[in-house]
Amino acid sequence: MGKFNKTGKRSMPTLNTSSLPDLIFSLLFFFMIVTTMREVTLKVEFKAPVATELEKLEKKSLVTFIYVGRPTQDLRKKMGSESRIQLNDKFADVAEIQDYITQERSSMKESDQPFMTVSLKIDKDTKMGIVTDIKQALRQAYALKINYSAQLRQ
Amino acid sequence: MAKGKRSVPEINSSSTADIAFLLLIFFLITTSMDTDRGLARRLPPPPENKEQLDDIIVKERNVLPVRINANDQLMVGSDYLTVGELRDRAKEFIANPFNEANLPEKHEKEIPYFGKVMVTDMHVISLQNDRGTSYQAYIDVQNELVAAYNELRNELAQEKWQKNYSELTPEQQEAVREYYPQKISEAEPKNYGGK
């Protein structure tokens, strides 16, 4: 049976994977560019209201965030289910906003300070009372550029 | 002298792919892709003292009061409107196309590209809400008002340059903004309409 002689083992040609790292790296760079770091862990439930006339928030470094909403499910036992304000990583009172803004502003570069924007991320079911209080506090702190965060209506 | 080429031992690079994968997964987890969008607004500076509040007197015809009560009902001027009707009402108020006596007065103003035109630069839309108004209703109203301005600006840009407002050069946009300045005032909070 000369047809089936086993002269030398046949081996699969190996796939050249030397360019695989380059491929993955380019993916990595793509994601590094298009995404932004998540900065705070949300302690409030937050669902943005919908609107159509939206503008993009430019320059993330100039933006300070204020979150308002009901505490998340597991925090509700401790904090109740009323709407609360979250600054950075903790719950806060309206009275603390002014200090927070001053503090955030002083941590910015001096040339950037006039362009500081406050993004209000407020749950759509919040009552306006708390929002009005925040707005008054922001006025007192001279943080006049604000942005009501919203989602595009499909 | 060297006897032939000395071969450099190759570094095994088969694990760089794994390292890159690890980095990739790390970035996928810690970052978020959503771009922040929203309605940009400017708050008025805080009042210096109480008297200053009453200082600014505007003519009644120049003001369009928009009120939202605790049940998210809308009152514009002296009429009850739905949110859908607000846009046309606001557009009519801002532009005052037929120079009516009960709509904002017009002034002559020199604007680049347009020359001397009559504009309603004294108008103010005064937005008032109750403490019990829901945030979504408030944003809806804000959105309609901004939309009214955007539509007017687009119409003007189409008429003049046959382009949308967003496609104009910065100088042209500036001129259009001067023609239709955005004046939405958020009045001092009041607690009316019950709890």
Strand order of the largest sheet of chain B: 5-4-3-8-9
Give me the secondary-structure category of chain A: alpha/beta
With helices defined by DSSP (H or I, 4 residues minimum), what is the helix count of chain A? 4
Radius of gyration of chain B: 28 Å
Structural class of chain B: alpha/beta
Share of helix of chain A, binned: 25-40%
Q: Could you tell me the mean pLDDT of chain A?
A: 82
**Spatial gap, N to C terminus of chain B:** 98 Å
| Succession of helices and strands of chain A | HEEEEEHEEHEHEE
- Give the ordered list of helices and strands of chain B: HEEHEEEHEEEHHE
List unreliable stretches of 5+ residues of chain B: none
Shape summary of chain B: elongated
Q: How many strands, what sense, and barrel or not for the largest sheet of chain A?
A: 6 strands, mixed
Extended strand count of chain B: 9
CATH class categorisation of chain A: Alpha Beta
Radius of gyration of chain A: 26 Å
Strand content of chain B: 15-25%
Number of helices of chain B: 5
Judging by the overall fold, what is the CATH architecture of chain A? 2-Layer Sandwich
Largest interface: A-B, 55 and 45 residues
